[in-house]
Amino acid sequence: MSPLNPKKILLIKHGSLGDIVFALEPIxxxxxxxxxxxxxxxxxxxxxxxxxxxxxxDKFLVDNRGGFLSTFSLISKILIGKYDLIIDLQNSxxxxxxxxxxxxxxxxxxxxxxxxxxxxxIIPVQGQESPTQGLYNQLKLLDIDQSDPDFSWLASxxxxxxxxxxxxxxxxxxxxxxxxxxxxxxxxxxxLCSLLESKGYYxxxxxxxxxxxxxxxxxxxxxxxxxxxxxxxxEIIYTVxxxxxxxxxxDTGPGHIAALSQVNTLWLxxxxxxxxxxLSYRANSxxxxxxxxxxxxxxxxxxxxxxxxxxxxx
Length: 314
Description:
This protein is of the alpha/beta class. It has helices spanning 17-33, 48-52, 68-81, 93-105, 131-139, 186-198, 212-221, 234-241, 253-259, 273-279, 298-307, and strands at residues 8-12, 38-43, 59-62, 85-88, 109-112, 119-120, 168-172, 202-207, 225-229, 246-249, 265-270, 285-290.
C-alpha cells in the first residue's frame, strides 16, 4: 500500500498540553489529506477525552509511557494493527524504540524525524523553527500541505454567561512545576490586574487548584474577577478566550490553548531562541521577553499594551 494512499493510519502524540496544542494543526492537516482513511491515535489516557472532540479517530491506543511490560504490550498492539502508515508526531527516544520493532517486524511505512523511520525529516537546531512548523515540514514528505485549521470542534456548548456583555481580559498566571523559571511573579500579575480593573476591565482566571499560589494575590486584590479556577478544561479556555479582548499569559499549555482563539495574546516569557520560535508562530502573538522574568516590570507590560494598542482603555 502506497503511503500516499493508506487505508489505515496510526498517529503517535503524547507529551505536555503545550506539545499537544503545537501538533493540532498538523493533525487536522493529516485528516484533510486522508479523510477516507481509518486513523487511530497513540496517546496518554488523560488526553483521550480531548482528542475525542476532533471526531477523526477510529480507535485510541493508550500509551502512559510506563515500564517494560506496557511498552511491549503497546508495540504488540501496533504490530497486530497492520497499519499502512505510521506518523510519529512525538519523535522521542521512546517512540524511536517502538519504530525499531515496527520497522523490522511489519510492513508499515513510518514518517518521523528519528533514525528508525522510512521517511525522515531532519530537525534543524532547536529554535530555528516552531514545533508546529517542524511537524508541517515533516509532513511535506507525505505531500501533506499546511491548511487553515478549523477549531470549531473545540468550542464548548456550555455557555458561560458570566462573561457576556463585559469587557474581559483573560489572565493565565500559572505554570507547571517544571516551568517556574518561566513565571512572571503573581504579585506583578496582581498589580497589572488591578490596573486593568481600574480601567473597567473584568479579569478572567483559568487554571487548576495546583495554581493556587499564582491566583491568590489576584483574588485578594481585585473585585471584578471571573473565577474559572478548576472549571477550565481546554474547551472552556478556548471558548472563553474567543470572547475576551486580550489574553495575557506565561509560556504555558493553557496559554497555547487560549491562543488558538486568534485573539491577541501577550506572552510574558523568557528571551531565548526556543521561546521566540515557539511563541511567534501565530499572527496574534505579541512577545514581551526578558532574560529573567523578575526583570520584567508592570510598567513595561502596561507600556507595551498601550504602544501596541492591545486594549482601548489603557
